[in-house]
């Protein structure tokens, strides 16, 4: 009986142990949920909405956790950030603002899928779904494509093959598609090379031509396809048999018309040649008749001239007496007319001088007004400079306030990821101070932008005023030239007024030069202000980037440390090599000294042994 009880208890214990192990595995798996995405790339067309899948298995509520969707080739790399139950819009890349969202109702079930609306070509790439607290990530590949239906048109007629030339064109594809011509049976037709054009919007346009003969089937298809995005677009066309018959009859009619036209041209040329020949013969006959008539006329003229010569000699004597009287009257009238013309010229010159003086006075008044406006602009520029100085002081003060914050960011590299999430908690006071500082920096940047806009408007007004002043100066120069012309004309009463005008013009020139100098100084100050503004903007952008992206600063510091470590390691290696070379040199020197000492000893021993020989040698 006890053996039977043991046998019956054994399988029960086994089942209980299996259940316990299974329960423990479930608990372990629940504690270690994993992010699951999609291994295959997601294909989306331009303008549509798509979903990038990402979920936790087993499901865990992530509504109160930090969730990140990023893309590595962006700056900033964040596509969507969810922190403390809120969408952080300011951290997003500008091209994704208003286009990315999560399914907030499904966050409790562990669904972190990203909805991307109105897909663009620039959205293509690899996206990373990441939970910092769990240090879990998943990658999703997005492939973006664009497709459009092709259009077939009649390009011309191939008379050599007695066929029709068709053209197919399709615009707005991405990536680059393939174009094919098919007959009614689905066989590929031999066509010309496809022309591919890439537009400024990175979309492709493809076109191709094919010659369709009568032996082909009448139904032709143009197919444009892109296999990577599984897009195929077809367009069909039917070419009737009557079209080919019309084409052949049309070609025969053209040949007949050409032959008849050539015959007509030859006939017209023969007619022209015949008429030309006839005209030449007529002209020769007419010239002979004219020569005979001229001889007869000359003979009759000689007779009449002899009779008239005697009469003319008598009339000349009477004419000479009358002519002398007429010449005296003519000279008197001429002198009177010249005197009247001179008086009229002087009066006109005086009137012109008066008009010019009036115009000069009006122009002087206008110049004074423009100078007053320029002075106002200078005062406004000075006020703007003062405002800029105050803004710079504010920025410097803000930088001094942010220096301890930068130091705390530099110490960020010592923190763990869990500590970073604590620091970035919106309820933390340091985080709130940081956000307030960022807001103040943004307000200062806005103020700087408004001042820049005001400066630009003032500069434009200044340029307009300069153009008006130049126009006035040109008019004054024109009037000067007119005065000089009037002075050279010889008008006596205008000389005194021209001298006054010259003096006034010299004074006007001096004023103009002073105005030009002031304009140059203003231009210099404006250029200096622009350079200062650009430098300030660059410094501000760097500071805002450092504040917004502490990870980037940490990475830069980390990279700097690594480079320093590498340089130190290289220096240590070089030092070791130098020490080794020094040691080898020392050993060589020691050996050389030892050999020298041994040689000295041997020499001394040899001399000592042979001293009797040296003593007996004659000196």
TrEMBL record:
Keywords for the protein's UniProt record, in alphabetical order: Coiled coil, Disulfide bond, Glycoprotein, Immunoglobulin domain, Membrane, Signal, Transmembrane, Transmembrane helix
Biased composition range(s): Basic and acidic residues: 286-295
Coiled coil: 327-401, 427-588
Localization annotation: Membrane
InterPro entries assigned: BTN3A2-like_Ig-C, Ig-like_dom, Ig-like_dom_sf, Ig-like_fold, Ig_sub, Ig_V-set, IgSF_BTN/MOG
Alphabetical GO biological process terms: regulation of cytokine production; regulation of leukocyte cell-cell adhesion; regulation of T cell activation; T cell activation; T cell receptor signaling pathway
PANTHER family: BUTYROPHILIN, ICOS LIGAND
UniProt name for this protein: Ig-like domain-containing protein
Lineage: Eukaryota, Metazoa, Chordata, Craniata, Vertebrata
């Amino acid at each position: 009986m006890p053996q039977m009880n043991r046998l019956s208890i054994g399988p029960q214990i086994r089942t209980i142990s299996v259940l316990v192990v299974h329960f423990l595995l479930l608990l372990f798996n629940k504690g270690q949920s994993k992010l699951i995405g999609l291994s295959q790339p997601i294909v989306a067309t331009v303008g549509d909405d798509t979903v990038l899948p990402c979920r936790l298995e087993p499901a865990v509520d992530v509504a109160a956790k930090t969730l990140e969707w990023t893309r590595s080739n962006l700056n900033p790399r964040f596509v969507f950030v969810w922190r403390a139950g809120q969408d952080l819009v300011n951290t997003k890349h500008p091209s994704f603002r208003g286009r990315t969202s999560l399914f907030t109702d499904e966050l409790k079930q562990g669904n972190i899928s990203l909805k991307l609306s109105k897909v663009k070509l620039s959205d293509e790439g690899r996206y990373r779904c990441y939970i910092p607290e769990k240090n879990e990530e998943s990658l999703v590949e997005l492939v973006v494509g664009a497709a459009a239906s092709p259009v077939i048109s009649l390009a011309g007629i191939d008379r050599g093959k007695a066929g029709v030339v068709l053209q197919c064109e399709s615009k707005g594809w991405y990536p680059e598609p393939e174009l094919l011509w098919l007959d009614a049976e689905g066989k590929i037709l031999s066509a010309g090379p496809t022309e591919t054009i890439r537009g400024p919007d990175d979309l492709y346009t493809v076109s191709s031509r094919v010659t369709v003969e009568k032996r082909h089937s009448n139904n032709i298809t143009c197919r444009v396809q892109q296999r990577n995005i599984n897009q195929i677009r077809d367009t069909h066309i039917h070419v009737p048999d009557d079209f080919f018959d019309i084409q052949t009859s049309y070609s025969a009619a053209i040949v007949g018309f050409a032959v008849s036209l050539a015959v007509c041209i030859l006939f017209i040329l023969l007619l022209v040649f015949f008429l030309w020949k006839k005209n030449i013969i007529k002209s020769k006959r007419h010239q002979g008749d004219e020569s005979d008539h001229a001889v007869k006329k000359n003979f009759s003229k000689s007779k009449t001239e002899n009779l008239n010569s005697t009469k003319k000699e008598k009339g000349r004597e009477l004419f000479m007496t009358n002519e002398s009287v007429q010449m005296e009257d003519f000279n008197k009238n001429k002198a009177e007319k010249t005197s009247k013309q001179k008086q009229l010229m002087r009066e006109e010159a005086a009137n012109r001088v008066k008009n010019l003086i009036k115009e000069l006075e009006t122009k002087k008044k206008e110049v004074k007004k423009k100078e007053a406006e320029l002075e106002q602009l200078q005062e406004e520029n000075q006020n703007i400079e003062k405002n800029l100085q105050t803004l710079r002081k504010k920025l410097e003060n803000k930088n001094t306030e942010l220096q301890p914050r930068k130091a705390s960011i530099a110490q960020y590299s010592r923190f763990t990821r869990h500590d970073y999430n604590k620091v970035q908690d919106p309820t933390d006071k340091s985080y709130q101070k940081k956000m307030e500082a960022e807001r103040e920096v943004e307000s200062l940047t806005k103020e700087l932008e408004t001042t820049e806009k005001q400066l630009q408007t003032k500069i434009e007004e200044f340029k307009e005023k300069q153009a008006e002043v130049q126009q006035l100066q040109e008019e004054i120069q024109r009037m000067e030239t007119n005065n000089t012309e009037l002075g050279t004309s010889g008008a006596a009463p205008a000389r005194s007024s021209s001298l006054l005008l010259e003096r006034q013009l010299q004074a006007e020139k001096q004023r103009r030069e002073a105005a030009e100098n002031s304009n140059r100084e203003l231009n210099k100050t404006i250029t200096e202000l622009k350079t200062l503004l650009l430098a300030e903007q660059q410094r501000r952008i760097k500071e805002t980037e450092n504040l917004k992206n502490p990870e980037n600063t940490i990475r830069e510091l980390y990279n700097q440390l690594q480079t320093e470590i590498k340089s130190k390691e290289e220096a240590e290696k070089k030092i070791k090599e130098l020490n080794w070379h020094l040691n080898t040199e020392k050993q060589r020197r020691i050996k050389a000294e030892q050999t020298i000492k041994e040689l000295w000893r041997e020499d001394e021993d040899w001399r000592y042994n042979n001293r009797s020989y040296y003593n007996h040698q004659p000196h």
